[in-house]
Amino acid sequence: MQINPGAGYTFTSSSSGHNLNIEQPWQNWTNIAYARQPFEIIEVIYDDVGTVWTFQVVPGTINNVVPQIEEDAVWVKLDRTSGGLPDWPVAALTPFNSTTHECFIYLRIGKDATSGDFPSTDDTSSNYPRIICSGTALSDTDTYGYVLLAKATEGAGPVCSVAQYVTGSLWGDRIKLGTNTATYYYARI
Question: How many other C-beta atoms can be found within 10 angstroms of the C-beta atom of residue 75?
């Protein structure tokens, strides 16, 4: 019988017999359960003071560009650090639709106004990739492509659930032919 080392155990064999070692030389199972994915919506918290839901987004990229999110009326890149440690921005999860109690979280991507590159790399431009929220579903336009990252649904209590749709960085392309509305294509990387 031949047994090889595997996930969660090691195995030794000698003329004295066989030994299966299940001590923990591997990563703790609880740490594996909490692994984060790019563009994952995390830390959805009800702010009693402001009576608003807040959230964070795990940093990801679109065509190797790190998007921004609005924190306290300032657009900040998702991968912000402070003193060498992650200091991801916190954004307001608003507006919720008054009828469905849903809020859609999108990655909005525009083309560069000067060069025409997609996505825009000018982080001072509104065409730069940004995480935005909307109380209604959004459709692509000539100006922006929208990737639905997640949908938050507000309940009573306060309670908020999040359905995550994208868990990975993306590569995208914009194709514009004649007078037709631009078409956007995305792939997870």
Answer: 16
Per-residue confidence in pLDDT tens, the chain, 189 aa = 556 656 666 667 677 776 666 665 555 555 554 679 999 999 999 987 768 999 999 999 999 999 999 999 999 999 999 999 999 999 999 999 999 999 999 999 999 999 999 999 999 999 999 999 999 999 999 999 999 999 999 998 789 999 999 999 999 999 999 999 999 999 999
Are 30 and 41 in the same domain?
no
Pairwise CA distance, residues 143 & 128, whole Å: 11
- pTM value is 0.81
Residues 42 and 73 in one domain: yes
10 Å CB burial of residue 54 (0-12, 13-18, 19+) is middle
**CA–CA separation, 8 vs 50, rounded Å?**
46
Residue 47's SS3 state is strand
| Domain shared by 135 and 73, yes or no | yes
Place of tokens 């990563």: 27
Q: Check if the beta carbon of residue 121 is closer than 8 Å to that of residue 135.
A: no
What tokens appear for 31 in the block?
A: 């740490």
